[in-house]
Design brief:
alpha+beta, Aminopeptidase, 8-stranded mixed beta sheet, 6 helices, 8 strands, binds coenzyme A
């Protein structure tokens, strides 16, 4: 990482995706994507609260920029040694370009750095794209929350265990080689 990137707290990836902490100034662009991709989008207030909690260490939220444009974002809540992925989305016009994978890899590395051993999340039964992404990272279905979304659609609860192992670090390096420096020697 260059000195400038470190100063800006931005990390350039091989594919030109620049990852950094989510800030209030990102929320206008985030809302454009959020409203397109979720039936019940988070409000600016919800994001603002999450960003505030990130400053206190209970959350971690990131954005991805490419060519100066916000193309994705993601975040998680950390409770003890578990990280709960709360949101991950990429620009509908930039799908299958590796943005989701890069964002999730960043969350997983951060969870490891914070001492977590597991990742968990809920996903709509119909959300084949997201399930495909989670499967790549080793998430497995562990249960169903019935009518979790809009009191209609079921959620699959997924877990990914043992993220604190050398084997999982290797998996992350394989998934996102451009991020390999993030993991150090473990
Ligand atoms: C889920 C989401 C973040 C994936 O973002 P993306 O930038 O397209 O993901 P990537 O390009 O990094 O794809 C990574 C992997 O996910 C899987 N995947 C992504 N889109 C897929 C699709 N439409 N069908 C099947 N698998 C898919 C594939 O395994 C893919 O790897 P590959 O391209 O090498 O085959 C994106 O579809 C999205 O924003 N969806 C709306 C928001 C959402 O549902 N978030 C999840 C809430 S639980």
């Amino acid at each position: 990482m260059s000195v400038l990137s470190r100063l800006l707290n931005r990390e350039p990836s091989a594919r030109g995706l620049v990852i950094g902490p989510m800030r209030r100034r990102d929320l206008t662009a985030i809302q454009v994507i959020e409203r397109q991709v979720y039936p019940q989008p988070w409000s600016v207030n919800v994001f603002t609260n999450e960003i505030d909690m990130a400053k206190q260490g209970q959350r971690y939220y990131i954005v991805g920029y490419r060519g100066g444009q916000l193309v994705g974002y993601a975040g998680m809540m950390i409770v003890m040694d578990e990280a709960h992925i709360t949101n991950i989305a990429s620009d509908p016009n930039r799908r299958r370009e590796g943005i989701g994978r890069r964002l999730l890899a960043d969350l997983a590395w951060e969870a490891r750095h914070r001492g977590c051993s597991s990742l968990t999340l809920e996903v709509r039964i119909s959300n084949v794209a997201a399930q495909g992404l989670y499967h790549q990272f080793g998430f497995e279905p562990a249960g169903i929350r019935q009518k979790y979304y809009e009191n209609t659609e079921d959620a699959i609860v997924m877990w990914c265990h043992n993220i604190d192992t050398h084997e999982y670090a290797d998996r992350l390096r394989q998934l996102c080689p451009e991020m390999a420096d993030r993991g150090g020697s473990t």
